[in-house]
Design brief:
The protein is an alpha+beta fold. It has 2 domains: about 150 residues; about 90 residues, Elongation Factor Tu (Ef-tu), domain 3. It is built from 1 helix and 6 strands, in the order αββββββ. It has a 6-stranded antiparallel β-barrel. Keywords: Coiled coil.
């Protein structure tokens, strides 16, 4: 017999043994395998059910996610539209801000020009104020001068009135003296001197006292001017009050700073009072 045949026979015997062993193992484990197969099918069914449930859940989740994605896309579109609107509004606001800045710059320039104009106007106003102040001072000076002139005119008018009254009184006195001279027929006067009117600057004073001579009963007038003021005996003094002539006096006694005079002529209805003005003559 050939060696290969022997080998095949041995190999077949071994296979028979293995097959017998496997058959025995299969017959022993057939129930277990069937049971495990059934379990495997059940597990497969369960897994399939779970897979179907998971698939359904995933489908629902996918639908929800799709809706959310759609909502987010709509929101994104809205946000994009809003962003575009905001960009446009921002550009408009930027332009407005720039316009306001330009306007503010223009206003500042106008303010600067106004300040310069105001300063110039203030300078002009100050010049006008100084000129007005000078004009007011000049006006006050003119008013004072006008008042002084009015006072002087009033004094001159008063003096003129008194002077005219004195002239009338002197004319009456002259006429009386002429009549007395005619009556005396060349007789000698007993007086030591004749009354005279002082020359030179006008002497001015006031009546200080009015009294009566006990011997003659005639009024005696005391004045506050005397020999220091060039007053001497027989000098005529004229008395005035305001714008009215009061009387003419003849000095009978002098002192350094006072004198006493008698009344030679009185204006009708007038009487001499302390404080009356006394002058050597009326006029300058």
């Amino acid at each position: 017999m050939h060696i290969l045949t022997k080998v095949f026979i041995v190999f077949a015997a071994v296979l028979s043994l293995v097959l017998a062993a496997l058959t025995m193992a299969y017959s022993v484990n057939a129930d277990a395998i069937v049971s495990k197969y059934n379990d495997a099918q059940q597990e497969a069914a369960t897994a399939k059910a779970k897979q179907q449930a998971a698939t359904a859940e995933y489908a629902d989740a996918a639908a929800v996610a799709t809706q959310q994605i759609h909502g987010l896309q709509l929101m994104l579109s809205d946000i994009a539209a809003r962003n575009a609107s905001l960009v446009t509004e921002n550009a408009s606001l930027t332009a407005s801000v720039q316009a306001e800045r330009n306007r503010a710059d223009a206003v500042e320039n106008q303010i600067g020009d106004s300040l310069q104009t105001t300063k110039a106007q203030a300078s002009v106003i100050e010049s006008f104020r100084q000129e007005l102040s000078s004009l007011r001072e000049s006006e006050l000076g003119l008013r004072r001068a006008s008042l002084e002139l009015e006072d002087r005119v009033n004094d001159l008018a008063s003096q003129n009135d008194v002077f005219n009254a004195t002239i009338r009184a002197l004319r009456e006195q002259l006429a009386s003296a002429q009549r007395a001279a005619e009556l005396a027929m060349g007789g000698v006067s007993g007086a030591e001197g004749s009354p005279y009117e002082a020359s030179g600057p006008v002497i001015r004073g006031r009546v200080t006292q009015v009294s009566v001579d006990p011997a003659s009963g005639q009024p005696l007038i005391e004045v506050d001017i005397g020999s220091n003021d060039r007053v001497s005996e027989n000098m005529q003094l004229h008395v005035g009050r305001g714008q009215n002539f009061v009387a003419t006096l003849v000095v009978v006694r002098t002192d350094l700073q006072s004198a006493v005079a008698r009344v030679s002529l009185t204006n009708a209805g007038s009487s001499i009072q302390p404080g009356d003005l006394v002058v050597s003559r009326f006029g300058r």
